[in-house]
C-alpha cells in the first residue's frame, strides 16, 4: 500500500540495518528534521532516501535523476546547533520504492511503497562461507586501515547480507543492484565472490580499496 514520506536523496546507496550519521545544514532539510522532532513517538520519526543517479544532494539545481528503490530511515539521535544546523543519526529500517516525488515549499515528499524480501530461506552454509570470507577480508584490511565493520556481524542472513554490502567497497551501480536484489542467498553469494576478488587483490598489492564510501561520515555537501 502506498504512503507518503518526507524524502532526503543522498549521493550513496544505503542498506537496511545501517546507522547513518548526517550533517544537516540546507534549509529544506533542517525543516524536515524540525518536523520530525515534533512527532511525539520516536518510532514515527521516519523519512525516506533514494540514491542520486545524477546531480547533487543540495543546492539550487539538486538531484536531476534518482534511483527508484531506496530505504526508510528512523531519526534516532540529534544535536541542534545555534546556527540552525543539525547533526543527526538515522537507522535504516527497510526498503521502499519511490513511485512519485513531489516538491513542496520546504522538503520533497515521496509517494512510496514497501519492498519486502521475496527469496527463499538462506542455507546455513551460504551464510557461513560469506561470514568466513568477510572475516578474512576484515583481518587483511585491518592491518593498514580501520575496521570496515566495527562490531559484531548480524546473525540473521538477510541482515548479514546488508551489513556486508555496506562494508565492501563497491561502485554505486553495484551497490544499487544489491539493494534491489530481493534474494538474500543471491546477495550473499555475490558478496562472497566480490570479497574473494578483493582478498586476492589485497594479497598482491596491500593498498586501500578505491571506494570507501561506507566507512565515512555522510554529509550533504
Task: Report what the structure shows.
- The protein has 221 residues and is an alpha+beta fold.
- The chain has 5 helices and 8 strands; from the N terminus they run ββαββββββαααα.
- The strands form 2 sheets. Strands 1, 2, 3, 6, 7 and 8 form a 6-stranded antiparallel sheet that branches.
- A hairpin with a 6-residue loop joins strand 7 and strand 8.
- Helix 2 packs parallel to helix 3 and helix 3 packs parallel to helix 5.
- The longest helix has 21 residues.
- The chain starts with a strand and ends in a 17-residue tail after the last helix.
- The C terminus is likely disordered.
Gyration radius, rounded: 18 Å
Helix content: 25-40%
Secondary-structure-based class equals alpha+beta
Can you summarize the main beta sheet? 6 strands, antiparallel
| Strands, total number | 8
User: Any low-confidence stretches, pLDDT <50, length ≥5?
Assistant: 210-221
Q: What's the helix-strand series? A: EEHEEEEEEHHHH
Q: Note the beta-strand portion.
A: 25-35%
- Average pLDDT works out at 88
Shape: globular
Separation of the first and last Cα atoms: 34 Å
State the helix count: 5
Descriptive key words:
221 residues, 8 strands, alpha+beta, 26% strand, six-stranded antiparallel sheet, 32% helix, disordered C terminus, two-stranded antiparallel ribbon
SSE topology:
Blueprint: E1 3-6, E2 19-24, H1 27-37, E3 46-49, E4 52-55, E5 63-66, E6 69-80, E7 86-102, E8 109-114, H2 124-141, H3 157-167, H4 172-180, H5 184-204
Antiparallel strand pairs: 1-8, 2-7, 3-6, 4-5, 6-7, 7-8
Helix pairs in contact: 2-3, 2-5, 3-5
